[in-house]
Structure formats: structure tokens, C-alpha cells
Write a structure and sequence with these properties.
Biased composition (Low complexity): 1-17
Organism: Galliscardovia ingluviei
Shape: globular
Order of helices and strands: EHHHHHHHEHHHHHHHH
Largest sheet: 2 strands, antiparallel
Distance between the termini: 32 Å
Helix content: over 70%
Strand order of the largest sheet: 1-2
CATH architecture: Up-down Bundle
Subcellular location: Cell membrane
Protein name: MFS transporter
Strand content: under 5%
Main location: membrane
Number of strands: 2
Structural class: mainly alpha
Length: 445
């Protein structure tokens, strides 16, 4: 088994200056944001632009490509694409995450997956058949999913435990509001292009993928240039030994999780509730298109979601410092039960889609941000990437289950509302496991 190291590593190519000792990372909740924390949060601003574009515009674009090819069921097709991307990341991340815990490897994996995702996003701007577009989307989404595992684990190398809720919430918050800047530009090109510039909306959508890829790249560079991996395992002398150590660590981690009741219960709860969050986010526009809602209105409504999510995420971070991250997560899960029921049973007009967008914005950022930081408090810091790999398995496999469930039930019944309603069962299960779990962070100073 590889040895464990907790102190700051020597200077590397990605960080020419000597890093501060680990105990000097910011840890007072009220302290101003440090430069390192700001650079870490910028990646949320970059990748969130891709998430917003592919949540709102891409399903509409795919819907047009499918109709041109004589296909009609956008919900099931888009759902299967989401499922494949999530499944690939879920399979890869525990192994790659464990390797990334080796000294100096975290940033290398992050660069590789992020770079692949950005290139695939840029390539989505090219005219192509719907199947080719979906393949590129799956590559880009897989790269994003994988990069987020490494990025999430970087939180423990960026700030102290008492600031994790705040910094994670701020990251999501600036991601939501920052991602709207390129999106508004893209939306202007898409909507104004046919009237003022003489090109089609399709061409405007294609341009938006190139713009988003450039934005994503620009806000990735500060993190890549400055990141220092404080928590790591020392490298083995040979690759064979490193791989053997990696699989040994994986086995140890699985046994540790299985015997840590509070961590296991939380991960099971997370598996169920993040299903609803990811599925509602990724399937909302395609579901609205299936119901025949106006595409432009849905896109603008999702833009409102981002603005609502910005202050909500910050508020969640502040409330978590007062009453606890787990309690705030539980409140959000209960709220999502109502959101899913509203979407499945009541939504059939643009006004109701706007209501749904606001409701999602109120709880989306908070539950994502606090899930990331709360988990970081429960795990060993020097094996963060490996543990976040398992976190990713639970989160991405939930995405596989949620999107697959919606797609399959919609295909079988021909009723998209029943597909959406089915994920409410998973949310109830999440509430049960959250209530069974004791919050170990409440006893810490």
C-alpha cells in the first residue's frame, strides 16, 4: 500500500512558487476570499456555461435534428445520451480517482479530461447528423463529469474545513451567474441572427457551442496555473506498483465505507436524491419540448433559473454555517419531492414552466454545493480523489438510473409525465436514509 502524505508538496511546474503550509489555508468562515479560493471557483464559472447551454439550447437543437431525420421522441433519445455519458464516468472515476491521489497526478487528470471536453464542445459547432452530434455530446459530457470529480476533490486542497460550505456554495453561485454572460451573448446571436444578420437560428446555435468552448477554456486556465495538491499519496517507483497500490487502496476504501455507517448512509441517500436534481436539470427542456411548449420561452426561463440560483446558493452556504449542511440538504430533498410532483402533474404551459424554473433555482445550487462540501468533511483528506471517485459513482449512477428511468417509462407508456413522476420514489428513499444518518460534523468545533 502506498504511503500517505499530508504536508504541502514541493513546487511543481504548475506552481512555480513555494506553496503555503497546509495549516495556513484559510479556515475562518468570516475571512475574505483568498486568491487560491477565487481561482478554484472560476472553474465553476467556466464549466457551468457548458451545462447551461446543453441543458437549454442543445436539446432543442437535437430535437430539430431528430425531426429532420424523421425521429420524434426527444425525451427518450436525450435521456439515453445522458445515461451513457454518466455511466462511462461512473465506471472510470474510482480507478482514475485513486491514481489521481498520487502526488502530482490530480492536475494532470483534470487537464486531460477538461481539455477533451472543451475540444468536443467546440466540435459540436460543426454541421452534422444527429447521431454524430450526440456522440460528441457524450464525449464532452463524459469529460465534464470526470473533470468535476477532480475539481470537487480540489476543494480540500483549497480551503480549510470550516470554510468548505461557504467556498463550495460561492463556487456554485458564481458559476450560475457567470455562465449567463456567454449564454446571453449566444441567445442574442440565436434569436437576432435571422432578423438582423441574415443567418439561421441553426447557425446561431452552432456558433454558441464555439463561444461556450472558448469561455470554458479561459476560466479553466487560472486553476490549472495555480493549483497545488496538498493532500496526496506518495508515488510508487514503478507503474505496476502504482496500479497494484491503487487497487489495494480501492479495496480498503470500499471496506472502510461499508463499515462507516454514517458515511455509507449518506452516500446511499446522495445516490437517490442527486438523481432527481440531475434528472430535472438535464431533462427539463426536452420534457417541455415533448409537451409542446415554446422553445424560446423555455430557454429564457432557464436563464432565470441561473439568476435565482445565485443568491440561493450563497444563502445556503450561510445557513449551513448556522444550522448544519446536512439539515439544509434534507430540506432541499423534501422541496424536490414537491418540484417533481409539480412538473409531472401540473405543468402544461409556459407559465408553469417558469414557476418550475424558479423553484429549481431556489434549491438546485444549495443542494449541489452543500453535498460537495459535506462529503469533504466526512472523508480522509489525503485520499480525497479516491473517495470523490466513489462519490461520483453514486452521483453519476444515480444520473444513469434517473435518466434511464424517465426515458424507459416514457418509451413504454408514451407518457413523459409518468416518467418524470417516477423519480419521486427515489427522493422519498433519500429522505429515509438522511433521517437514519447521524451527522458527525455537529460534534466538531
Amino acid at each position: 500500500m502506498s504511503s500517505i502524505h499530508r504536508a504541502a508538496p514541493a513546487a511543481s511546474a504548475t506552481q512555480p512558487s513555494t506553496p503555503r503550509p497546509l495549516d495556513e489555508l484559510p479556515n475562518k468562515p468570516s475571512a475574505p476570499l483568498s486568491p487560491r479560493e477565487k481561482r478554484w471557483m472560476l472553474y465553476d464559472m467556466g464549466n457551468s456555461a457548458f451545462v447551461l447551454l446543453t441543458t437549454s439550447v442543445a436539446p432543442i437543437y437535437v430535437n430539430g435534428l431528430l425531426k429532420a431525420a424523421g425521429e420524434t421522441n426527444i425525451v427518450s433519445t436525450w435521456g439515453y445520451a445522458q445515461t451513457i455519458a454518466a455511466l462511462i464516468a461512473a465506471i472510470l472515476m474510482p480507478i482514475l480517482g485513486s491514481l489521481a491521489d498520487i502526488e502530482g497526478m490530480k492536475i494532470k487528470f483534470f487537464i486531460g479530461f477538461t481539455g477533451t471536453a472543451i475540444l468536443a464542445c467546440a466540435a459540436m459547432a460543426l454541421p452534422m447528423h444527429w447521431l454524430a452530434f450526440l456522440i460528441l455530446y457524450i464525449i464532452a459530457r463524459t469529460g465534464l463529469n470526470a473533470s468535476m470529480t477532480f475539481y470537487d476533490s480540489m476543494l480540500i486542497d483549497t480551503t480549510g474545513e470550516q470554510r468548505m460550505d461557504k467556498i463550495s456554495a460561492y463556487g456554485y453561485a458564481i458559476g450560475y451567474v457567470g455562465s449567463t454572460l456567454p449564454f446571453i451573448l449566444c441567445l442574442g446571436i440565436i434569436l437576432a441572427g435571422p432578423r438582423y444578420f441574415g443567418f439561421s437560428q441553426t447557425f446561431g446555435i452552432q456558433c454558441s457551442f464555439a463561444i461556450t468552448a472558448l469561455w470554458w477554456l479561459l476560466f479553466t486556465i487560472p486553476l490549472v496555473r495555480s493549483f497545488v495538491q496538498h493532500h496526496y499519496r506518495l508515488p510508487a517507483s514503478r507503474m505496476r506498483e502504482a496500479l497494484r497500490g491503487t487497487f489495494s487502496e480501492l479495496g480498503t476504501t470500499m471496506r472502510t465505507i461499508a463499515h462507516n455507517r454514517n458515511l455509507l448512509l449518506y452516500m446511499i441517500a446522495y445516490f437517490f436524491y442527486i438523481d432527481a436534481v440531475n434528472t430535472v436539470i438535464s431533462m427539463s427542456t426536452s420534457y417541455g419540448a415533448q409537451l409542446g411548449l415554446n422553445a424560446n420561452m423555455m430557454v429564457v426561463a432557464l436563464l432565470v433559473t441561473q439568476f435565482v440560483a445565485f443568491p440561493s446558493a450563497i444563502a445556503y452556504g450561510a445557513l449551513a454555517n448556522r444550522i448544519g449542511a446536512k439539515r439544509m440538504i434534507t430540506i432541499s430533498v423534501a422541496a424536490y419531492v414537491g418540484i417533481v410532483m409539480f412538473a409531472a402533474l401540473l405543468m402544461d404551459s409556459a407559465v408553469e414552466f417558469w414557476i418550475l424554473a424558479v423553484l429549481v433555482g431556489l434549491f438546485m445550487g444549495g443542494i449541489q454545493a452543500l453535498s460537495r462540501s459535506y462529503y469533504g468533511k466526512l472523508i480522509p483528506k489525503e485520499r480525497a480523489n479516491e473517495y470523490y471517485g466513489f462519490y461520483d459513482i453514486f452521483g453519476r449512477t444515480a444520473s444513469v438510473l434517473g435518466t434511464l428511468l424517465v426515458a424507459a417509462i416514457t418509451s413504454i407508456t408514451g407518457n413523459a409525465s409518468l416518467g418524470v413522476l417516477s423519480i419521486g420514489i427515489l427522493l422519498v428513499l433519500a429522505l429515509i436514509f438522511l433521517l437514519l444518518q447521524r451527522d458527525p460534523t455537529q460534534n466538531r468545533g
